[in-house]
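Sequence only, no structure available. Ideas?
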Amino acid sequence: MSVLLNFAMFPTDKGDSVSEYVSQVIAHIKDSGLNYKLNPMGTTIEADTMAEALKVVQESYDILAPVSNRIYCSITIDAQKDKGQRMAGKIASIETKIGKVNK
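Reply:
I predicted one. Tokens follow.
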């Protein structure tokens, strides 16, 4: 199984710039050992199970909860059985049709 989970999470009570807090979440994702890709509006991770993917989201919340009274999170999930390496595969599929894309 391949679970692609894209999420954005940040405190809403820390002013206009929250990169200090978001960087802590990204460092945790980086240390998780999962394949991930940072993008301007969130981060996509690829896990073998739904539980594994959602665990990263919970742990990310746990990082922000002690320093924030309000946390925003949006999540998009695409789970597919009998597949793997879909994060790279989805991009490669488009590139075979239209050529290289910005990564």
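The chain has a mean pLDDT of 95.
Hope that gets you unstuck.
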